[in-house]
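Exam revision sheet. Question 4 asks you to relate a sequence to its structure. Input first:
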Amino acid sequence: MLSLKKWLVKNKFSFIGAVIGSVGGYLYWNFVGCSSGTCAITSSPVNSTIYGAVMGFLIVGMFKSDKTKKDV
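Answer key, structure tokens:
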């Protein structure tokens, strides 16, 4: 359980990016969307929200440093 807590703390900015992305995906569906229903991502609020969350997680994760502290 302790390692899960460390992992969550280590990746907190990625999860914040996922939350921001999911809000952005929902807002995109709400204001732009796809009225015909043929668009795979923007035809449903669930699809847009999940897509936004994944993109937010990945984009913020790109800027994370891979440096680790070594015990000497």
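Marking note for examiners. The chain has one domain: 11-62.
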